[in-house]
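Schema walkthrough. Field components (list of strings):
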Amino acid sequence: MADVSIRNVTKQFGKSEVIHGISCDIRDGEFIVILGPSGCGKSTLLRMIAGLEQISSGEVVIDGRVVNRLEPAERDIAMVFQNYALYPHMTVYRNMAYGLKMRRMPKDEIDQRVRNAARILELSALLDRKPRQLSGGQRQRVAMGRCIVREPKVFLFDEPLSNLDAKLRVQMRLEIRKLHEDLKITSVYVTHDQVEAMTLGDRLVVMDNGYAAQTGSPLEVYERPANMFVAGFIGSPAMNFMEVTVQEGGQALKLPGDIQIPLNGSALPGWAGKKAILGIRPEHMELDSKGPRTILFTVGQVELLGADTLVHGHIGAGQVPMTVRLPDVHRFEKHATIRLSISQEKLHLFDPETKKRIV
Amino acid sequence: MMVEHRPVLTFVTHATLILGALVLAFPIYVTFVASTHTLEVVTKSFPLLPGSHLVENYLRALTVGPRDVGATVGTMMLNSLIMALGITFGKISISLLAAFAIVYFRFRLRIVFFWMIFITLMLPVEVRILPTYKVAADLKLLNSYPGLIFPLIASATATFLFRQFFMTVPDELCEAHRIDGGGPMRFFFDILLPMSRTSIAALFVILFIYGWNQYLWPLLITSDQQYYTLLIGIKRMLDVGEGQAEWQIIMASTILAMLPPVLVVIFMQKQFVRGMTETEK
Amino acid sequence: MEKRVVFKNRVLPYILVAPQIVVTVLFFIWPASQALVQSFLQEDAFGTASAFVWFDNFADLFAGAEYLDSFRVTLTFSSAVAGAALSVALLLAVMADRALRSATVYKTLIIWPYAVAPVVAGVLWFFLFNPTVGMLAFFMKKAGLDWNHTLNGTQAMTLVIIAAAWREISYNFLFFLAGLQAIPHSFIEAAAIDGAGPWRRFWTIVFPLLSPTMFFLIVVNIVYAFFDTFGVIHAITRGGPNYATNILVYKVFNDGFINLDLGGSAAQSVMLMIVVITLTVVQFRFIERKVHY
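Field assembly_structure (string):
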């Protein structure tokens, strides 16, 4: 068990920099999820913590010790790979025992640890099987077992669930969560799946193109996205964006198609008369014609999902596209016009230049 | 692949194949028959059915040896076996190590070495016999087992086969091994070698046949009968000048010379086919 | 293609490649370069001094009829071996492919002659066609054909071709069968629906799809006939009668070891190297194309 500090870490491949100075303090026992689209550098960051990639500059500190120059084996970490990386010619037992054997642990202690881990992961009956005789979920568990037996300071997960089908993914997600609650080992988990990120992480690091776009608890990131990238990346369907003008005095927003949205008291100092980007999540609009902030919405395609209904359409004459998610089943005629109300605390405003959050 | 079901075509198909198999087997059958008769019968009456002198002929070949050769077939078979196994294990070991170095390390002369190994493809013994013989003579390798084995153990084919295989081993296995705390040689022996088993088995079959069937090189460097391989011995048996060749013994020796590689092909057919198709890639 | 993960060690890789490289340098590269040097030198009658003679050895080679004859013999021999081995193997492979479930049984029956060494193949056929004790020679004499390959050059050539091709049929069969079984069944069925009979289907669909295998095997068979048939010649004809079967590899052995003509033998080695290099390049070009398919 240990805390981990990432201090201004960068990574260069040849001349091009792919990680541009990321810092993050991970507390002992915390579960951190690094979330981002493919190619954003999240796996590279994880591999630098593991010691599988050189750190170009900055420091990685595990349990108070700078590990930049240490071999992966000396960092006291364990890692679950996307393709599990189980040794194909070894049984489940030997796969789990191998790392301990390399550390010259006595045989009976190895046996005890392996059997204990197998019991936790319900692998006891499979110890003599080879990896190819296992299902995807079982392989995944062996990969975790191999980490558990080591009792490392830090667990690293590199997209561990992405090779599983949807149903297994949900199940394994819950198992990982439970495992972490039982073992309380500091964990760093890389994924591109926001549901995994929201459900597993104590905190998220959302990465964009080699930068940490935002660090915070899942709800913080959802409720107060720091910039347009995070706002658009978190949430499904994605947040609707549109260009608005802040009215003189900052008391209202002018949407395309001459729609006005009054703002209660929260004046926007310095933004009067300027353009901004408004973001509204599809799930944050209601069918309501009486509220203080309503807009006219023209229905296009309707998708009935059972639990809720996705309505794609546009607002105003400017044909600004917008998606709305309404609970329950709703049937609309195409080109029908409906009135939607928006609550003020669910509005997000961004600076069109810097893409950063304004309020 | 057959679409129509015409009995005539099916008959022609099987008839052709059976005829083909019989014609291919015919010389060996005749050889076997000849190895079971007395010299008198073999040379005068062209027998088509096996005779009663099988044990006698083979025993004489194995323990006493044919005239004018000076070594028993038993000794020569042992020499052939030592050469074949030496070449097989030698080639597999040095190729595995070289392929491991070339795939899993970056070092300055890597590309140079790679091409040096590649060039060996273009230099069969036949095109460099005299100078190679001279090197072997200078190194005092004439009439010795190392002389029979070492010049034949460098193999680009085996190195490339292993290189190809190592390239398909996922990088993550190597990374997982590093996290488990293992060095390169541990990785080689604990992970890579066991994973290469099927490739090694396929190569073993091909190389055993290759080694057993070597002829030109042993012919050059063995003049002492005690180092004759069986193939050299059989050829010597034929060279009797004006005298009568002992055909029944020669034929028994020939059958014995074919036996090990043929049995290997028949009983390890899967590995043989795999080895053939993979080494030619 | 390169590995993302590599071990960092300065000395170890050199130790690992050392055995391979030592053997390669000692027994391949050094002798080959010696052959190259030697081919430009001429030794005096006592073998005590040698002089640099530029391309004299090569000029001598091509000036005499002997070498050109040997070249001609080799070309006849190798094209006949390749032609015979390929056509018989193709016929058998097509049949085995039609035999469906029994294909594996026939495969076992047909591939094993490949395990027989060329020199042993030579001995087998030499025995069958031996003018005094050979069964086939005896029957041919009875049928009115006077067979004696020790005197008749054409008969000698025929015999070494049969012996060399016999073994290679198995090899070609294996690759043809694999090639045939790799052709998607749907192609054949589509052609059958279009109304093409078995014969037509073979020549318009199967054979063109088999052409990469065919090309590859042609190269391999020529290499085999050029370099691996020394044993066949040595066992049956020793290059005779009257040089009728004196193929290049036999000649280079004979001139170097029996006649001890160092410069001439070296020049021949160099010529052979050029042949192998050409064939290897052709083969690799082809493989490259196969990879990009």
